[in-house]
Amino acid sequence: MSVGILMLVHTAFGRAEQVARHWNKYGCPVVIHVDASVKPKAYKKFVKSLGDLADVKFCKRHKCEWGAWGLVAASQSASEMMLEEFPEVRHIYLTSGSCLPLRPVEELKDYLKSRPRTDFIESATTADVPWTVGGLDAERFTLHFPFSWKRNRYLFDKWVDIQRFLRIKRRIPHGIVPHMGSQWWCLTRQTLSAILEDPERDTFDKYFSRVWIPDESYFQTLARLYSTKIESRSLTLSKFDFQGKPHIFYDDHLQLLRRSDCFVARKIWPKAGKLYNGFLRDPEGAIKMSEPNPAKIDRIFAKAVERRTKGRTGLYMQSRYPNEGWENGMTFGRYSVFHGFAELFEDFETWLARATGTQVHGHIFAPERAEFSGRQRVINGALSSSPKLRDYNSIAFLSNLIWNTRGERQCFQVGPRDEGTPIWFIAKDPNAQVSVISGAWAVPLFKSNLNFTDIRAEAARLQKLENDQLYALRSPYAKARVRIWTMAEFIEAPMEPLQTIIDEIGMDRARRLSEAPRMTDLSGFGQFLQNLKNQGMHPYLMGDFPVEQPETGQKKPPRKPYLVQ
């Protein structure tokens, strides 16, 4: 015998038994530690199932919890039994019940036999690697951790904060430099026995029992004291995602695991029958593989992480939806937003659709309902015009509208009445082209038959709402292409800004506009604004609108619009 296998088991006992028998069949003694949290009935049944194998032993049980000392205590007990019961073992390989050997056992034995003095254990200082994700690095060795991170998260975090505030710092035992690495190691008998028989073991155990996640630092640190040759890598393939959670391997990972050339993989889904049947087989049918090289599949994992965290442009998914800023592009494609145009022009929607060939909607965030093109009730993607469904998540509604109608540019109207408009989302979206005629909300009021007192109150409300929308569009965080004209500026020479808008939409063949939408009759509008001023309401967003409309030949030269790049 040259290799002894330690197994830490807490669930999926049928698979653990299958793997233990495989190791033992090819001459590897096995010592199994079963979590003390496992019920006695299940434990006895598991022990009985392996009772026919003389070289499979069960060690003293400890209660194991993630990040706590129990995992180290379990590894110590299993190691002590292995060293005592099987003196001919030269290397001891630590695995879990969810680990699966990927290569013939004889290959592993030959590989370790040719390296009799080499310890395979990932071991690096906290300053050398950025492994920790969302946790503590150097502080895990200098603070006390009496509370469970999983069971008492609040107390855990509070106690860390208190220690930081009081500047508490633990003394690291003399002669050691804390190292970190994978829990799954393969050590020589000489190194492992030196760690377990060290005269200072009580001191080390007392210190590491209050270190956070000691199973990733205890053996990794002490191996540096006694090993004559360390290969700082694990022979076990264990991959972690961007959140520090282990990847689980399923049946469709069969070819991927073969490419890794690793001896053991973790974590295997218990119901992955193809993996267990494919790798737990006789050496004659096994594939000969080369030096373990998990980096060969790193590119595939990197792509998987990118797809999970970034995904496709303009789409949202479970893994990144709750996190603002994780979206890969806020929307799928370019779209145009018109503010005030439908109020100033009587046939703006039909004119724009005819001039650009795009799909032009009305006020899709109108309080009454979403005014889809042609006033449809349901459009692509089963998007309903119901305001209740739309306002449940207005950002998702807009994103779905752009995605489900991909290949056709969308144009729609907004205004201060549309209080549910996700204006900040639109302002920060690089795909948005926003054109604004400020103050145009006053035109429908001018043509209404309301009492003037009601008109004044509504005008004050709409002006405040529009001012808030303009604040978002002028914000330094805005990434949309924004053009803002006051109403007075726009009507002086409307063809020039209309031509600019059409050009920016990007028609297949740029051409000069030969017709303009029909502007509503504004006779008396200047006096209407003056009446509002006289009544104490100051309508400033429409610009310097004259009380009397000037003659055509007396028009002022057009002024440039407010432009946000």
TrEMBL record:
Where, subcellularly, is it found?
Endoplasmic reticulum membrane; Golgi apparatus membrane
Choose any GO biological process term that the UniProt entry carries and state it. heparan sulfate proteoglycan biosynthetic process
Where the protein is mainly located, per its record?
A: endoplasmic reticulum
Q: Give GO terms: molecular function aspect only.
A: metal ion binding; protein xylosyltransferase activity
Membrane topology is:
Single-pass type II membrane protein
Enumerate the spans annotated as DUF5927 domain: 266-565
Enumerate the UniProt keywords alphabetically. Answer: Disulfide bond, Endoplasmic reticulum, Glycoprotein, Glycosyltransferase, Golgi apparatus, Membrane, Metal-binding, Signal-anchor, Transferase, Transmembrane, Transmembrane helix
Q: What Pfam families does the database record attribute to this sequence?
A: Branch, DUF5927
Highest taxon, organism lineage = Bacteria
Its GO CC terms are: membrane
Chain positions covered by the region annotation Disordered: 542-565
Which protein, by its recorded name, is this?
Peptide O-xylosyltransferase
